[in-house]
Write a structure and sequence with these properties.
This is DZIP3-like HEPN domain-containing protein. Pfam families: HEPN_DZIP3 (PF18738). The protein folds into 2 domains: 13-187, no CATH class; 193-281. It contains 9 helices and no strands. The protein has helices spanning 13-40, 46-52, 62-69, 86-96, 118-134, 143-167, 175-184, 189-268, 280-283. α1 packs parallel to α4, α1 runs antiparallel to α7 (175-184) and α6 (143-167) packs antiparallel against α7. The chain is rod-shaped and about 155 Å long. It starts with 12 loop residues before the first helix and ends with a helix.
Length: 287
């Protein structure tokens, strides 16, 4: 049975920051430097160029150098960005690309803050790679440092995009957009899928809630109609009671009057229990 413990290596916001920056350094920066290199030296010509100037490439990774030198002119194999890393591309650009302007200081040195030449940004890429990936002492980046790095990386990417557009409008590179995607996307595909499913459930619940609200509104209208109807019934009942009371009062008065006249008739000895009629002057009082 697996045991669980609180690990100091658990994922956190800081480790996620490091993962995002690492993806940019390994993938996006590699593709940027590949664009710089192959604009001056087409991929088909790269093996021959390395073979000719291999003495300049002392710091180039031996495996890459051996591989490039082993590609003959008649070979159908064409070098691609996936075969290189940032360090090897930096070495090739620095030693083989004569059209790339030097950094404001010199190659291998930290460029000044205001240095925005192509060489300066290539140096920044090298430093990003060494500091954040190649020689990193821990796999995490604090929030303040991360925010600063994001600004520097996005600014450099924007300048690279402008440089490629200046070289050829057909290139239409948008590395800044790619970097923005990495800085904001989900790092865990399973987590992203779960999140999307939760959002779908929330959308369904929202629709259901809307239906419930409509039903409540309809019920409220119905209750208001019932309340009005009950009010009308109560009003009618009240009127009926009042009318009944009035009738009762009138009947009571009539009974009193009848009793009065009967009393008078009794006193006058005019009631004929054998069916004889009372005198006309008495009978008129009953009309």
């Amino acid at each position: 049975m697996a045991s669980y413990c609180c690990s100091c290596y658990a994922s956190s916001e800081e480790t996620t920051n490091y993962a995002r920056i690492s993806r940019i350094v390994v993938d996006v920066f590699r593709d940027i430097l590949w664009q710089v290199l192959t604009y001056e030296i087409p991929p088909n010509d790269l093996p021959q160029k390395v073979q000719t100037d291999k003495k300049k490439l002392g710091k180039l990774d031996l495996k890459i150098k051996t591989w490039l030198c082993g590609i003959s002119s008649s070979s159908t194999e064409i070098p691609s960005a996936e075969k290189f890393d940032v360090s090897s591309l930096y070495t090739l650009i620095r030693n083989l690309c004569s059209q790339v302007p030097n950094p404001s200081t010199q190659w291998g040195q930290t460029p000044p803050t205001g240095g925005i030449t192509l060489g300066d940004d290539i140096e920044r890429v090298r430093q990003f790679r060494n500091t954040l990936y190649g020689h990193a002492t821990q796999a995490k980046i604090e929030a303040v440092e991360y925010s600063k790095l994001c600004i520097e990386i996005r600014n450099a990417a924007r300048r690279f995009d402008a440089y490629f557009y200046y070289l050829s409008k057909a290139m239409k590179c948008n590395f800044q957009c790619e970097i923005d995607t990495i800085l904001t996307c989900f790092m865990d595909k399973n987590l992203e899928d779960d999140y999307i499913e939760k959002m779908k459930e929330i959308a369904i619940l929202s629709d259901d809630l809307g239906n419930v609200k409509q039903q409540v509104a309809d019920m409220t209208k119905t209750l208001e109609s019932v309340r009005d109807a009950v009010y009308d019934v109560r009003k009618d009942v009240k009127e009926i009671k009042e009318d009944s009371w009035n009738r009762s009062c009138r009947n009571h008065d009539m009974e009193k009057e009848k009793a009065k006249y009967l009393s008078i008739a009794e006193e006058m000895k005019i009631i004929n229990f054998r069916g004889k009629k009372a005198p006309a002057e008495i009978a008129k009082q009953w009309d």
